């Protein structure tokens, strides 16, 4: 489970460190940020997304907004060190080539490709050359685009690639989540899959795990009322912890896939199953028929599956009503 801090630090190191605290307390495996140099990522002519205009207004450009959310490379070194102290994996998504080089110097265990870079050939080649496992989000993409990006990664030396189904609308409507598309990615490309979620609440990521997601990524914040583009579509600390608990429970509940009774339920067989018993008093030598036999609990006698083997035999002793039949 990856707790996506993203830019919910609002460009403040102390807020970023508090997000690490929350993620560690919630019990996720990793916390992920976003590393970028604003001028390398966004042109001065780039408009805001509609959801960004809704959450941050229209008085500034996308570039002006993003600059407020930028942390320095040195800040990320400090955050990584703090994550080590908190025993949580530090990850960050690079959004430009300089940021890839910087994150490579931190020797991250996994590199994350965001949905917006899936058609960025130079970016994909540079990520692949790091020769590390890659997680790639696939928002806004069709299968052909995903396939092209996956081939670039594989052809240029990337390690194991995990594909995350994703919808990039903040927040994503449930009818647009399309969780079954995750299964289409797995079937088409033969890779491990997961889900990067932008719906409100925790239902969708829990369902994704039940469907077979091996990675869950979910935005969280210290406070949904903070200023910034992503806070309102993020989980608060209590919701993050609830999601982690629910997903861990689902992981355990999925089990082995073998259909067999658990050790805990084996004692219930005798209580809940039934046996062939005397419907009324039966005397020794009497023919056993449907008139004097029935099926009742407990299940520690002759199984009703042997009904026709018992019919037509004779009683080997007297039986009182409800007594287990013996042959």
UniProtKB/TrEMBL annotation:
Residues 275-327 form the AFP-like domain. It comes from the Bacteria. PROSITE patterns: AFP_LIKE. GO terms for biological process: carbohydrate biosynthetic process. Gene3D superfamilies: Aldolase class I, Antifreeze-like/N-acetylneuraminic acid synthase C-terminal domain. SUPFAM superfamilies: AFP III-like domain, Aldolase. CDD domains: SAF_NeuB_like. One of its GO terms (molecular function) is N-acylneuraminate-9-phosphate synthase activity. PANTHER family: N-ACETYLNEURAMINATE SYNTHASE, SIALIC ACID SYNTHASE. This is AFP-like domain-containing protein. It comes from Desulfitobacterium metallireducens DSM 15288.
């Amino acid at each position: 489970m990856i707790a996506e801090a993203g830019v919910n630090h609002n460009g403040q190191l102390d807020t970023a460190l508090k997000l690490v605290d929350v993620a560690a307390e919630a019990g996720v495996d990793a916390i992920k940020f976003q590393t970028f140099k604003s001028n390398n990522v966004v042109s001065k002519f780039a408009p805001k997304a509609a959801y960004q205009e809704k959450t941050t207004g229209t008085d500034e450009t996308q570039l002006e907004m993003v600059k407020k959310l930028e942390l320095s490379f040195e800040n990320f070194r400090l955050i990584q060190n703090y994550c080590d102290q908190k025993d949580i994996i530090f990850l960050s998504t690079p959004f430009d080539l300089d940021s890839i080089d910087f994150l490579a110097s931190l020797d991250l265990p996994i590199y994350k490709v965001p949905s917006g870079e899936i058609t960025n050939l130079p970016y994909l080649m540079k990520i692949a050359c790091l020769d590390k496992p890659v997680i790639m989000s696939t928002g806004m993409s069709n299968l052909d685009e995903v396939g092209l990006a996956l081939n670039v990664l594989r052809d240029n030396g990337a390690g194991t690639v995990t594909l995350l189904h994703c919808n990039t609308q903040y927040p994503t409507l449930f009818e647009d989540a399309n969780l079954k598309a995750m299964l289409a990615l797995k079937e088409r490309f033969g890779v491990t899959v997961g889900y990067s979620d932008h719906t409100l609440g925790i239902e969708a990521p829990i369902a994704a795990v039940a469907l077979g997601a091996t990675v869950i990524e979910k935005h969280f914040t210290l406070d949904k009322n903070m200023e910034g583009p992503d806070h309102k579509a993020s989980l608060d600390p209590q919701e993050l912890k609830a999601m982690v608990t629910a997903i861990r429970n689902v992981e355990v509940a999925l089990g082995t896939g073998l259909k067999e009774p658990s050790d805990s339920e084996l004692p219930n067989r005798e209580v809940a199953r039934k046996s062939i018993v005397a419907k009324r008093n039966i005397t020794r030598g009497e023919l056993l028929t449907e008139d004097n036999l029935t099926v009742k609990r407990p299940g520690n006698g002759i199984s009703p599956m042997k009904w026709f083997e018992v019919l037509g035999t004779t009683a080997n002793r007297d039986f009182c009503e409800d007594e287990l039949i013996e042959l």
